[in-house]
Amino acid sequence: MAKITFVGHVSKDINKTPSETVIVPGGGVFYGSIAAQRLGVRCVVVTKVSSQDVSLFEPIEEAGAELIALTSSQTTTIENVYPSDNPDERMSRILHTADPFETADLVHVRTNVVVVSALWRGEFPEELLKQLRQCVDTLVVDAQGFLRNVLEDGRMIYRDWWDKEKYLPLINIFKVDNNEAYVMTQEKDLERACKVLSGFGMKIVLATHKNGVIAFDGRDFYRANFSEYKMLGRTGRGDTCLASFLAALLNGKSLQEAVNLAARITSAKMQYAGPYRGGEVA
Question: What would the pLDDT profile of 171-197 be if each residue is shown by its tens digit?
Fold first, then answer.
């Protein structure tokens, strides 16, 4: 029986670094489900995609996860530009968007753990979080899908989650990177920002930064560093980190052990473009 359902759009990613450009399938549910599945956790992906693009995301099923591809007129397509060697400097532009999720789509969520990993604000209407909260034990949310706003020209900019006081208390595990944490708290120090976010009521804040990952449970911090990595492997960093962290917790690991595993698996994945390939000892 599956243990995690990932809900969110898959995407066609055009990733540009100073040295090269690659076009790969992407999206948080793509990177996350493959990583968790390859760490021994059964996963289901509920996504929306154009029928002509479904074949791009066959790696999800090849990894052993179940893919529920709900039909959409278009597939979300995103261009990511990394202008420097700092992986936290990313300029993104959305070229096409798949259809937003609706209440009726939640019938496909049948696990006690669900990860909402949207790519843009409005993709997963925040009112649906209330409905999910009623039917799952553990609600995991990536901040990106509620902070990243799409402008008319396709550029995506980060704005604070206006109704965070209303929705953050519904969440068990909240994933941010250092930029998202700053946008939501105006705290430049990541650990102080984690404390502010924790004050809204979630059990765990999981935060990534260019050097590693931090978890805060409202009382203690748990930290681990990434090893050296390649810029081309930057896309999918946070998704892989979150998925491997959850896999560790579901396999009975402590918070520190989960953070250690997340850093190790994410470091391995960032050696190459595309999802985690497996092979690391969990």
Answer: 999 999 999 999 999 999 999 999 999
Q: If we measure between CA atoms, which residue out of 184, 188, 229 comes closest to residue 205? A: 184
> Does residue 276 sit within a domain?
no
State pTM to two decimals: 0.93
Q: Provide φ and ψ at 222, rounded to 5°.
A: -130, 125
Q: Which phi and psi angles does 176 have, rounded to 5°?
A: -135, 160
CATH code for the domain in which residue 184 is found: 3.40.1190.20
Amino acid at 218: G
On whether residue 195 sits in a domain, the answer given is: yes
Residue 74 counted as domain residue? yes
Structure tokens belonging to residue 102:
């609706």
In a domain, 248, yes or no: yes
Domain residues for 167?
A: 4-269
The residues with which 76 forms a beta bridge, in sequence order, are: 11
Are β-strands 43-49 and 21-26 bridged in parallel, bridged antiparallel, or unpaired? unpaired
Contact 6, 119 (CB under 8 A): no
Tokens of 22: 């690659």
| pLDDT tens digits, one per residue of 104-139 | 999 999 999 999 999 999 999 999 999 999 999 999
Dihedral angle sign, alpha carbons of residues 201, 202, 204, 209? negative
Cα separation values, 22 from 57, 58, 60, 163, 175, Å: 16, 18, 19, 36, 26
Q: How far is CA 203 from CA 6, 151, 188, 215, in A?
A: 19, 33, 22, 10
For the chain, what is the largest distance between any 2 Cα atoms, rounded to a whole number of angstroms?
Answer: 48
Question: For residue 225, which phi and psi values (nearest 5 degrees)?
Answer: -100, 150
Tell me the CA distances in angstroms from 141 to 114, 129, 210, one per residue in order: 8, 9, 20
Domain tally, the chain: 1
Q: Which residue blocks in 207-254 are alpha helix, DSSP H? A: 237-250
CA gap 53, 25 in Å, rounded: 10
